[in-house]
Amino acid sequence: MTTPEIWRIARENARLVGYRCTSCGWVAFPERKRVCKRCRAPADFEEIELKPYGRVLAYVVQHRLPKGFETPLPVAVVELADGLRVYGHLVECAPEDVRVGLEVEADLRVMYEEEGARVYSYKFRPREREREGS
Amino acid sequence: MPQLVGYGVYLPRYRIAVSEIHAAWGRSGGGRGGRGEKAVVPPDEDPLTLGVKAARAALAQAGVEGRHLSAVLAASTSTGYAEGALAAPLAYHLGAEGDVFVGDFGLSSRSVTAAMRAAMDALASGQGKHAFALAVAAERLIAEPGSSYELSYSGGAGALLLASQGGFAEVVGFASHTSGFVGRSRREGRSHGLVDERFMMQQFLAHVQGSVERLLKAIEIPPEEFAHVVVQAPEGRWAVRALKKLGLPAEKLVSTFPQLGYAGCASLLIDLARALDQAAPGELLLVVSYGPGGSDALALRVTKSPPKADVEAQLQRKELVSYPVYLRYQGLLGEERR
User: Fold this and answer.
1) Complex ipTM
2) B271 CB within 8 Å of a chain A CB
3) The domain over range B3-167+309-329 is classified in CATH as 3.40.50.2300
């Protein structure tokens, strides 16, 4: 089942579509905004396809989480190449290997299950060249 | 004749050594002699996530955008849904929506060639607005711990992009051998029952031989002219036996079974990708599917040097896990089993 709140941002979520403020360049994701958070004024937004990679800006390793999450779970604020910041799980990466500046790429995963259906979104994993370098 | 314009695979990063499984059950070796590895799909991946990634690789290789697909056909026996859809959300993730023909194939590992055939027929029908059709196969097979299936059942995905022209290989022929024989089967949410494996293999060989003989007769090409052979087989040694039965040397078999195990529908497209990685212009490929209901055989002729999917590199990119981690990843440990 696809619920209204999932369907509302389905396109942005599935294809990493963002909206860039035409006056200052701030990127809204996943919702299409009418007011730019940086300009703090009504603005025009252009649709962009987000580049699916970026860098870890900050992270924590979660050890106590509700049922349904595997711990220890590294979660990070990632700055994508287009300048926006998103929050996401890190996968295929041991907690001790996470660091600020780590290059990561978006990877489609099952986020959780709801009403008999899996809900998908992106998690992050180290980019292949990071692994080669280490 | 339809042509291949792109192909891609997605292999999970995790593997388990077959010897690790044997050790967990206190066995010294067993049927696969304790050799080899199989792919392990983590719990947050399923046929959709795997399939999307293989499909994106195929599209990127061909430089084709998802919105230029007129048909997306998906095959999987492990979506876990009694009602649901794989092909449509998969197409949607690729950017294909609206005027896109989609079809879901399952219930038999053989349905991977049904999806390929449907992709070809969709092109031939001329009804699509766009020039490309995509066939995807993705699996996350879960085997009962301690069973013989546990030594091989794995997961992964492969995708094949087809068009009416401009490809690097063409489909020269397609033949089927269908019977009422079902072979391996299981009820939803249950594990396989005990079967007579020897009898299963004999039937496998008969069905594979049936489709291949029909194909070769139709296209009038003798078996020895094929440079690479892909046979979808739930056990690695079954494929070797099939080649012997067809009178072909075992060296022509292209298989990822020793590295990945058996990934149902996906195995055929992953092995085909590995074969295309090695293929040279002028060479012929024989591709044979097998699953409940029978077998399909295809002949492909490579016309131009194929682009590479570099299956070899993905096979090398791996991380071995222990048996307890494997069980956890399969969703077989803890309260929230799935």
Assistant:
1) 0.92
2) no
3) no
